[in-house]
Amino acid sequence: MTAAPPRSAVLAGIGAYVPPNRVTNAELTTRLDTTDEWIRTRTGIAARHVVGPGTATSDLAVEAGLRALKSAGDDHADAVVLATTTPDRPCPATAPDVAARLGLRGVAAFDVAAVCSGFLYGLATASGMIAAGLADTVLLIAADAFTTIIDPEDRTTAVIFADGAGAVVLRAGRPDEPGAIGPMVLGSDGGLSDLIEVPGGGSRERSGGRPAEEYGRYFRMAGRETYRHAVEHMTSASQRATELAGWPMAAVDRFAAHQANARILSAVAERLEIPAERQLSNIENYGNTGAASLPLLLAQEAQRGRLSAGHRVLLTAFGGGLAWGATTLSWPQLTTS
Length: 337
Known about the structure:
The protein has helices spanning 25-28, 36-43, 57-72, 95-101, 118-131, 155-158, 203-206, 223-245, 262-272, 283-286, 293-304, and strands at residues 8-17, 22-24, 47-49, 79-83, 108-112, 137-145, 163-173, 185-188, 196-197, 220-221, 254-257, 279-280, 312-319, 323-330. By secondary structure, the chain is an alpha/beta fold. Helix 9 links the parallel strand 11 (254-257) and strand 12.
């Protein structure tokens, strides 16, 4: 009896969406003690897209999901995985609502929370479902309305974070075909969870017996320490992922890192010795969109023609948790819109 060939998750479609409201640095300077030069120098960001009143994470996710399904030439998926830090409600998960609005009632649907590493954690989860035979196709969406948890008066975070969504359709296929997701490298360090956090809103606050305002309802980040750990872990995860894939670093055609901060991106690329022409970036016009960062970047660069069939792509991300990850794939032929 011949053993069944191994199943791998293969990228079959991609899509992205950002809300139409674009906010420039000049607009932020009217209410924050900052300048366009200060923001550009420290973050590399010139503009970002933010949700309008009444727009939630699910709205962004549905739009990106529709585009990914269209790219794949299909309107069905066996499961929907949503990576997000900003669910519509603490309970229930947002994914079932997104699935229903996409016409996918009855399928498995759940959220994954790994902050800015959410897309890679979701990719590992979806790939595992396909490898185990639990699903033949999975719609993975990463969406964040990150500005809804940012203090609008805090210039250290208000200038960085933005809103958006990206999505991919994964199908069962062979590990040797274009688009097959390569070895996954994931890691975390909960001992440093207070470097990136929203202290209030969870069971710690609700059971603490202290006023809610003492915990803080807004996102906060220890910038200097976060920078150091982001560079260290994205570099080491990238090195391990390429090693497992059997690639020398010089074989990487395109490097796609979570769009956290231009200085972080430059530091990681420099350590990996990846030249500027092989680096993908959209941070200047889209900022840090949390979990949505990687799929949004990939969708846009594929549409622009900077990411083409056959390119060997290295992906990496870092976020709260602390959590980080990396993986590889050979870019397939995709329809983008």
